Amino acid sequence: MVRDSPVSVSRWLPPPLDYIKVNFDDTSFRSGQELGIGVVVCGASGECLDWLSKRIDRMGSGELAEALAACEAVLLALRKNWQLVIFEGDCATLIHKILSLSANYSVVGPITLDIWSLFTRFRECSFQFVKRSRNAVAHALAKSTCGSLEGESVVPPTVSSLVIADIAQ
Q1: What residues contact 145, with CB distance under 8 A and at least 6 apart?
Q2: In the prediction, which pLDDT does 27 show?
Q3: What is the rounded CA–CA span in Å between residue 76 and residue 122?
Q4: How many CB atoms within 10 Å of residue 1?
Q5: Which of 16, 51, 55, 113 is the most buried (most CB within 10 A)?
Q6: Burial (CB count within 10 angstroms: exposed 0-12, middle 13-18, buried 19+), residue 65
Q7: Pairwise CA distance, residues 58 & 37, whole Å
Q8: How far apart are CA 53 and CA 158, in angstroms?
Q9: Angle at 35 between CA 76 and CA 14, to 5 degrees
């Protein structure tokens, strides 16, 4: 079941008990030929449960890169078999397209359709827009990638201070 959650969240908040929160983001590298995708997963007490950092070839718009990051976030949650999930991203137009029930003929349409087809595998999930300042850990993971990396619990040292700052707020 998907809950429609178009509300903007101004600061990172932990998910309710028994839920996990998955933040995703992308970034472009100076070369302009590659993109970074970052995903971070946190539990109800703010602890990092998992993360992903991936570099991919650039393929079009920033919204397309953000859609690929959202898809990676959904796939990571499915691989871990998490059932109660809140996804957060900082691209308002993408979140709107994911939550929209109307046909999407934009470049991200096929990806949003893929994401929708995966929703049935969760007991409950939602997508929320968050301000970029509240998506700092996912953004830092996207920027720090030097290949395809994934880990559990401990985020790379370059972003660990951001996780601590989020928990402290």
Answers
A1: 36, 37, 38, 53, 54, 55
A2: 84
A3: 12
A4: 9
A5: 51
A6: buried
A7: 11
A8: 12
A9: 40
pLDDT tens digit sequence for 70-118: 999 999 999 999 999 999 999 999 999 988 877 778 888 888 888 988 9
SS3 content of the chain, % helix, strand, coil (to 5): 35, 30, 30
**DSSP state at residue 162:** H
Which pLDDT belongs to residue 100? 84
Dihedral angle at the C-alpha atoms of 47, 45, 162, 61, nearest 10 degrees? Answer: 80
What pLDDT, in 10s, does the model give residues 1-57? 444 454 555 567 889 999 999 999 988 776 667 788 899 999 998 888 888 888 877
Residue 76's pLDDT is 95
To 10 degrees, what angle do helices 109-119 and 92-99 make? 50
Q: What number is the average pLDDT over the span 114-125? A: 91
Candidates 20, 2, 4, 8; CA nearest to 91 is 8
Q: What is the DSSP secondary-structure string of 26-65?
A: EEE-TTSSEEEEEEEEE-TTS-EEEEEEEEEE--S-HHHH
